[in-house]
Amino acid sequence: MRIEELPTPCFVVDEAAIEKNLKILNGVMQRTGAKIILAQKAFSMTTMYPLIGEYLSGTTASGLFEARLGYEEMGKENHVFAPAYREDEIDEIISICDHIIFNSFSQLEKFKDKALAAGKKVGLRVNPECSTQVGHEIYDPCSTGSRFGTKLEDFRPELLDGVSGLHFHTLCQQNSDDLATTLQAFEAKFGKWLPQMDWVNFGGGHHITRDDYDIATLEACIKRMQDLYGLEVYLEPGEAVALNAGYLIASVLDFHKNGIDIAILDTSATCHMPDVLEMPYRPPLIGSGQPDEKPFTYRLGGQTCLTGDVIGDYSFDEPLQCGDRLVFGDMAIYSMVKTNTFNGMPLPAIAVQSKDGSCQIVRQFGYQDFKLRLA
């Protein structure tokens, strides 16, 4: 089927773009010997897992269900981290994961022996207390009050027996200069314990496949950990795997006017692209411009009852018409994984665009998907 024949709303993932990103990531692995694993929290489209598995070392999870997904669908290295683990889930988590990363020494004391008895690698997440993010405080694990990672003042080296690696994750959509800054803080606080470790995990948030990303600095950071401490290095990007590799196609349903021309679409910021409101950000829209850049400006909004269900203001060369199809870019990451059915809003279909340009719908949703979430 051609892309213009797809129903709307519909997520479309570009197989060629995914593979382009994977080749960049695999190049880092080949040159450095580091291992890169998919952070499923950003992109967990299992149709793509066989392709991803050809290039990356495995997956990382934030809890039991993601861990099961990586174990069942990719079957390579399977890592997990959570701020705290449930006692009724930890046995299954340990059974299907290779690396179990704990957030605190209290969690270590509680579950470490089980993990070690099962032959699994045990890690501890630390907080370098080095904030490098600007404007994205909601995603800053080093901010005051953050739930993530053990600070130096709470570090208990007498409990490190059996711990083979340290993990930090401080970045969000950032370049490698911020990784280098973070690594300095990490070494200053926790470097004295690195010689007794076997591995280190740099976490995620590395925008490695972005055009302006400084891969040389990233590889220098990896090499430093390898040469100075003899550590195996892991990275767990999510966005970098599917960056700029997906679209959300929507249709114009109607128009309204209230101080500005408003176009109502069959998609929704709050239901289908919630990061637009959480981050917040203005998603790219093919063929559009900034407000008033082109002759006709519209505020694009969804069908839900939330007044703030607004995608953004965009301008166009020609007036929009009912039935026009709009294509939002960079919609593979943190979109499908965050969709919801607020107001009974239907979920978008999911399609794959093959390398030859043809499209295939791999999942469609209906009323039962809404109903069965509820009781």
Number of E strands: 16
Shape: elongated
At CATH level 3, the topology of the largest domain is: TIM Barrel
In the CATH hierarchy, the architecture of the largest domain is Alpha-Beta Barrel
* Secondary-structure element series: EHEHEHEHEHEEHEHEHEEHHEEEEEH
Count the DSSP helices.
11
Structural class: alpha/beta
Low-confidence stretches: none
How many domains, as an integer? 2
What's the mean pLDDT score? 97
In helices, the fraction of residues equals 25-40%
Please name the fourth-level CATH homologous superfamily of the largest domain. Alanine racemase
Question: What is the CA–CA distance across the termini?
Answer: 37 Å
CATH class label of the largest domain:
Alpha Beta
From the alpha-carbon coordinates, what is the Rg to the nearest angstrom?
22 Å
Tell me what portion of residues adopts beta-strand conformation: 15-25%
Major sheet details: 8 strands, mixed
Protein name: Carboxynorspermidine decarboxylase
Enzyme class: lyase
EC number: 4.1.1.96
Cofactor: pyridoxal 5'-phosphate
What's this, in brief?
Strands 1, 10, 11, 12, 13, 14, 15 and 16 form an eight-stranded mixed β-sheet that branches. An eight-stranded parallel β-barrel has the order 2-3-4-5-6-7-8-9, surrounded by five helices. The protein is an alpha/beta fold. It is built from eleven helices and 16 strands.
